[in-house]
């Protein structure tokens, strides 16, 4: 008998429905056609054991399985359940009506239990689009798939539950999540809040500016000064994610098999890869292509702690994605693209020894060591960082203060307001939403200085020996500072503040 079952393949972040035809005939053998990889070819062993251990069997006949479209490579073990159901029906062990109205996915253990799959959200979105009635998948992935409304999503623990469901036994119910309500509820409670950070008012101000204009930022300070603590709190002051952004980000995490309990991610992600990370883990790729850290940070923050410790070639591969806000992975037969629009926060010690050049520091570094250390970060990546700020440890009295600092929710209100001003300003310009994205043409149009500001900037550039690349960055950051005050003109005090945020351009750092 010939039956059709449906599965799905995920490329990049989009799914394609896969039609699986199972034909059982006289003879012997297990033949798989339609570009399956080895994991799928091995499925017969898992399916045989899983069925046997649950009172069913893999028929000793000629089983031919065709996966279509044939030109699309099918990978991984997530088709076990699709094939198993197809075989059960084709060998008349179970009788199923409406089999063609479901997408079925899951990897089988030998006892018939189910292992989680990747990309459940993308698959669910596609299934809904194509008019399927339901989606049957491992219970571990049910929450991310249930985000999709208008599709019956069934989380199952083992193959027996699936059989019972199709034969009308048991009591399997679709999972229903009120996504909208959960989405708005979690927004008010950031996991890490700026109110935990004592003192550091000037750094917080600086991070507020970075958040308001979407500016990449580097924090320079000795060990223990709170750099990591501050960076972790940046997502909490960025404007709340829109539903569209939340879906995009969740999709990527779903494809990487990294969705947490929650289902829909309503908070902006914070990713902090270790400096020993490889280029593949950072930007994505591999033989089964997977999104990297820069895509997991999509719509959120990528924190590169100890920036100079990262391998130069690893930082090099981040350049393009940082510019394009997406990353393209090319293989001989296909290319896939993952979104990667994130805010970069980097941190570094002021010297390889860890401390600012001050006589009381426990370790000091020679000028040559210093030069080598800083040269590692100069160039392409640093060119994309608008704000440099020095972080000093807070004095003991501050740390022990009882008084609570301003909460992230309060700071976020000002940030969101400044973002609204920017959205209006750039309303008619494609791909331009906030100040950090301005190119030199836009800077000349939107960052016009009066004479007083201009002469201030000129004097500062000469006196502090600021490089030419600092010029555009200062203008952009000054634009954001003005926006935070809802001031249309950029005034001298905005310029004066922006000039302070170019530590690494000054003489003695990168020269
Ligand atoms: N301003 C602060 N308010 C409250 N706690 C602070 C503050 N600064 C530092 N701390 C405390 O010190 C700890 C160390 O800070 P953190 O790890 O962020 O420092 P760091 O600059 O990242 O250091 P390293 O260079 O060693 O990574 C924090 O976990 C926090 O408990
Ligand atoms: Mg740290």
From TrEMBL:
Residues 213-395 form the AAA+ ATPase domain. It comes from the Bacteria. SUPFAM superfamilies: P-loop containing nucleoside triphosphate hydrolases (SSF52540), Ribosomal protein S5 domain 2-like (SSF54211). InterPro entries: AAA+_ATPase, CHLI-like, MCM_dom, Mg_chelat-rel, Mg_chelat-rel_C, Mg_chelatse_chII-like_cat_dom, P-loop_NTPase, Ribosomal_Su5_D2-typ_SF. The keyword Transmembrane does not apply. One of its GO terms (molecular function) is ATP binding. Belongs to the Mg-chelatase subunits D/I family. ComM subfamily. PANTHER family: COMPETENCE PROTEIN COMM, MAGNESIUM-CHELATASE SUBUNIT CHLI. This is Magnesium chelatase.
